[in-house]
Amino acid sequence: MTSLGNEDTGRKVLFVGPTLPDAARIASGLDIRPPAIQGDVYRAVRDGAAAIGLVDGGFEYTAPVWHKEILYALSAGVAVFGAASMGALRAAECRVFGMVGIGTIARSYADGVLVDDADVAQLHAPAALGWASLSEPLVNILATLAQPDLRTGLTPDLCDRIEAAARGLHFKDRTWRSILKGVDLPDEDTRRTLEAKLKAGACNRKREDALLLIQALAASSSARSREKPDWVFRQTTLWEELIQR
Predict the structure, then answer these.
(1) Nearest 5°: phi and psi at 22?
(2) DSSP letter, residue 22
């Protein structure tokens, strides 16, 4: 049996990047780490985390956060919250074991309203360039189109066509400009005006949910729970291989 680390340090770890590039300013009291990849949640537990907030995670060119790591954390009495991006996905998948989903996006995955992992994915610059967004995640596009103030200026049919155009693109190609290129509009002036309107009224639902997670993480206990879950963590061969790496 492996040691679960020091449970009295009170460390609260937040994995975040492009969803909340200014996290260091907003959540200065938390241990802020880059988007999580496989092994990072395990290491946070071994570092003494009492609570973990998962927002962003790597997934395309690296192994993503493993569900088993989250179960390991929960079995050790660590509170685990997920929101906005990779965190929302893992929260929906691990909710029956005690991971807590925060915000609209996590709830939508848990309820089956959202099912595609790519709905929260986005292209972005590296940390050295401030995680600058280079594409629009579909969840933000849908939230923008659903805003009452915006819908009063656009017909329901136009909103539906914009949504359809967005869904038809790969997540890396979803910018307002590329989306509107797939929508039949009278002329380029109309297209430019609509693009400006959408950008000005854009809703960043991922950011909103990440901020809610920070509040939950900050309000969580600074000590690990001593209450045992009603399930048993199994140390499989694959798990042993992970911790040895």
Answers:
(1) -100, 25
(2) T
Q: Report the Cα–Cα distance between both ends of the chain, in Å, rounded.
A: 16
pTM given for the model: 0.92
Report CA 81 to chain centroid distance, whole Å.
10
Closest CA to 198 of 214, 185, 216: 185
The answer to whether 120 touches 206, Cβ cutoff 8 Å, is yes
Structure tokens at 211: 């901020």
- Domain boundaries along the sequence of the chain: 11-118+208-227, 123-205
Three-class SS of residue 41? helix
The angle, 0 to 180 degrees and rounded to 10, between the axes of the packed helices 138-145 and 205-219 is: 110
In CATH, what number does 11-118+208-227 get? Answer: 3.40.50
The amino acid that residue 194 corresponds to is L
Q: Are 5 and 47 in contact (CB under 8 A)?
A: yes
User: Each residue of 163-201: pLDDT tens digit?
Assistant: 999 999 999 999 999 999 999 999 999 999 999 999 999
